[in-house]
Amino acid sequence: MMNMDFDRKLTIPMEAKAMYPLSPALAQIVGQRAKEIRDVITGRSDKLLLIIGPCSADNEDSVMEYLHKLRRVQEQVQEKVFIIPRLYTNKPRTTGDGYMGLLHQPDPVEKPDLFNGIVYTREFHMRALAETGFSCADEMLYPENLKYLDDLLAYVAVGARSVEDQQHRLTASGLDIPVGMKNPTGGNPEVMLNAIAAAQHEHTFIYRGWQAHSHGNPYAHAILRGYVDRYGQSYPNYHYEDLLRLSEAYEARMLQNPAVIVDTNHANSGKNHLEQVRIAKEVMSNRRCSGDIQRLVKGLMIESYLEDGAQPVGGGCYGKSITDPCLGWEKSERLIRDIADMV
Length: 343
Fold this sequence. Notes:
Layout: H1 13-19, H2 24-42, E1 48-53, H3 60-77, E2 81-85, H4 114-132, E3 137-139, E4 155-158, H5 166-172, E5 179-182, H6 189-200, E6 203-207, E7 210-214, E8 221-224, E9 227-228, E10 234-235, H7 240-253, E11 260-263, H8 275-289, H9 291-296, E12 297-303, H10 329-342
Parallel strand pairs: 1-2, 1-12, 3-4, 4-5, 5-8, 8-11, 11-12
Antiparallel strand pairs: 6-7, 9-10
């Protein structure tokens, strides 16, 4: 017998999309951006992808202010850098405790409300698209929830705690946008590469009560985010030698469209958000030093918000992260311009 209560039946994705439909004009923007991102992953475009934004999208007003600032910078660096904002509406937690994102709590200081969370996340992504022209990135915390947003997203990340999960891998194989597979928290790159291989193949599996058949996702790729040993010590994996080893591993496995996004925070920075500036510049410098690294490294992932650092839930500082610490706007804007100069 199951030891849980079933509080309410949630709306299905088809109903949510009918209530909050995507207009043909906005769908065209999503499609055009998806093509441009795929072109970077396949090497048809030499632009750099920059997946940047708050650790979690915790407040609609401050996130939208951030996105409008980001749009102005995008227009100035668009010849070299293609920006995909992080609009992460659900967040994994190592122990299950802590803020799990707007999907769970549309108001971070109130109790979980998943029905309103489903509606809110769809409305939020649609507002970002309508006001800024940005289709955004989100994390695949629950594979079954992707259908609520699959017509809106530009990019999906599978987190370090989920990358070995079969359902995440099979669901990624059914998407037609790039899916980044993070290395696991323990650092074993084989787990990440196995996930990429699985996502690039076709599969038949159960999805939302259906027998589903995926066609494989040739745009599945690696995200390097560093790792933690059994004593809790962080170790980076973005250095020159790490990238060359990954390039060789891609070649040995003959995976499609070898690509990596370097996550400049998390274990790569030891969660010191200010280190992201140095790390991003080191990766860009290494791209200049090696043709193999330049072909492999398709972009960077940076955690950035209006204010530096982080605060507790309910801390009261507008535009400051309530999950991982982020780089403040002034530093972020300067870094984006420096990255563009190094492409």
